[in-house]
Structures are given as structure tokens and as C-alpha cells.
Amino acid sequence: MTVHGLIVNLNNYKVDNKWGEYSLDRGRIALDFKALADEVIKGYGITNEEAMQILECPDEEILELLNSAYIIRKHYYGNEVKLNMIINTKSGACQENCGYCAQSRDSTNPIEKYRMMQKDEIVEGAKRAYQLQSGTYCIVASGRGPTTRELHQVTSAVKEIKEKYDLKICACLGILKPGQAEQLMEAGVDRYNHNINTSENHHDAITTSHSYQDRVGTVGKVKEAGISPCSGVIVGMKETKQDVIQMALALKELDADSIPVNFLHAMEGTLLEGTDELTPVYCLKVLSLFRFINPTKEIRISGGREVNLRSLQPLGLYAANSVFIGDYLTTAGQEGTKDHQMLKDLGFEIDYVGSGRPV
Ligand code: SF4
Questions:
Q1: What separation in Å is there between the alpha carbon of 5 and the centre of ligand 1?
Q2: What is the per-residue pLDDT across 258-303, written as a single tens digit (0 to 9) for each?
Q3: Pocket of ligand 1 (CB under 6 A)
Q4: The whole model's pTM is what?
Q5: Where are the chain's structural domains?
Q6: How many CB atoms lie within 10 A of CB 275?
Q7: Fold of domain 79-350
């Protein structure tokens, strides 16, 4: 039995038209996702209960949920998709103990290990980003944070790339020491990524060699230096649904411009090896949740896209408006040409702001 026309009071915002329906069969309030999306566009911040309903909605409601997330995504970004390409400029031998990471001191995964690349190699990678029509080139390095020499190698490469290509540069080099954010800013770095990874509550179950506050502090530092902050999460690390909601709310609080949502691809030899708790439909619910909580932000489907969303990858772009193209840090991604075909098939267009075309 279903009772329609329920009056719902949300944070003193009284909705007197049909907002939801109460299903006695299921004993739950089923949200009208579309009405909620319209309110989000008007500035409404969804409650914890509504967030939980998004994550717990029955799988058969996924298209309704995605359609509502798409209403928000389309309002702010139309049908455009931002492409981002990563270069791993320094791999492995990290002294931190992040449980998901094959580069960590505790991982036995036989990944390729190498020191920070020379400037020319980093500049050469920008050419590949250009060929893939990526708007953003992400320069990433393993480790707790950059040494003075490593920072110099990155900043000198960034200066040269900026002269050659119309690319946005995102750096991801770990925890920054005082003054380093300013040096990156002066070199021309547009964005700095430092993921919160998980909720504050769950952080210590994932790593103990640095704190949640270390991560949040670095996001604050880059923002103060005038660099656009990028910070995201890894879902599927044995966190609760409440942790997932807390991550999305924390990023709203941090006002991260760009939010990469990774889905754990648990690699052999890592502390989280064997963790495989995500379904493609749940990943879509997570992406929708991030869109509802951070409606105006660039939400990027990131690492683990291929193995976790599998055949449902295209549907993710109805909630997210950004993807990585090419390989990830230690795992191979889908061929760039397949991603371009996917966008074409969806009728989406590549966002050409900073398209990588030579200046
Ligand atoms: S995520 Fe970064 S800091 Fe953590 S172990 Fe991997 S490379 Fe080191």
C-alpha cells in the first residue's frame, strides 16, 4: 500500500506538494529524486537521511536516481566532459603505509619503481595529453611530499609545458611544506590534488603514517596560495555508507573545485588485497550522491572505473562530468580511443577549455 502526497518538513523548508511517498510495503520513505534535484539547483543542501536514501535506494530505482543527478549535472555542465591524463613521475618506494596503495612501504606488489623523472620526460608526457584531447595534465609523484629537488624538477617542467601547450596543470605530490604551494603557483600550476581518501572516522583504518588533518591541511594550504583545490575519495575500502556520506560532506566543507571519485581496485600485495565489495549499481549511487551534495563541482570518475563500473561505465557520466583518460598510477586504464568512442556514443562533448592544442 502506498500513501501519496506526504507533507515533508526539511530543515524548516516545508514542501506541501508531493515530495515523497510512503510505502508501507517496504516500510520506508521513497524520495522523489527529481523534486530533490530541482531543490538542490535552487540551493538546498540535502540532509543526512536523504543522502542515506540515495545510497540505499532499491537497484530498480537507479535510472530514476541517475536521471535526477543528470538534471543537476546538465544544469551546471551541459553535456560536456572534462578529460584528465595522469603521468606518474616517481613510482614506488614510498615510506607511507596507505593500505590501498601498491607504492606503499608495506606493499609487496612488484610494481615498476623509479625516481622522479627528468624535466624532459615530464614535458614529453604533456604531448600525449594533447594527443588524447585531455584538458588537464596531472603530474603525480609517490611519497609523503616533495623534496626541494623534486619540486624544482616539477616547477621547471610546468613552466616549459605552459609555454608549449594550452593545458591545465594539476600537481599531486603529497603533503606540502611551507612555501611549496607558492612555488607551484608561481610556476603556473593551476590545480593541486590531495585526496582526503576516506572519512575522518575511517582514516586510521587505512593509514597511520599521516593523519586526516595532514591531508586536510594541505588542501587548505594550496587554496591559500591561490591554486584550485582538488580532493577526492576512494570508495570500497570497508567503510560504511555513513562514511561515504561524511566524505562527500567533508569535500563540500573544504570547497574542493574538483572531486575525483575512485573505486578501489584492490591490488595483490596491498593491505587491502582481496577487498571486493562494490557493485556497478552501487558505484552509480555513490556518483549520484556526490552530485547531489556537491552540485556545482567537477566530479570525476577516477581509478577503478573499468573494474568496478564495468559495462555500466557510460551511465556514470550522467552524474559525473569528468574522467581520467589513459593509464592510472600503477594500473592500466581503458584505451583512450575507447573512451572517446564512449563519449561520442553518449552524445557528450569534450570540454575544450585547455584542450592541449599548442598555443
Ligand atoms: S598513496 Fe601516496 S603517500 Fe600513500 S603510500 Fe601511496 S604513494 Fe605513498
A1: 51
A2: 999 999 999 999 999 999 999 999 999 999 999 999 999 999 999 9
A3: 94, 96, 98, 101, 103-104, 142-144, 174
A4: 0.89
A5: 2-76, 79-350
A6: 16
A7: TIM Barrel (3.20.20)
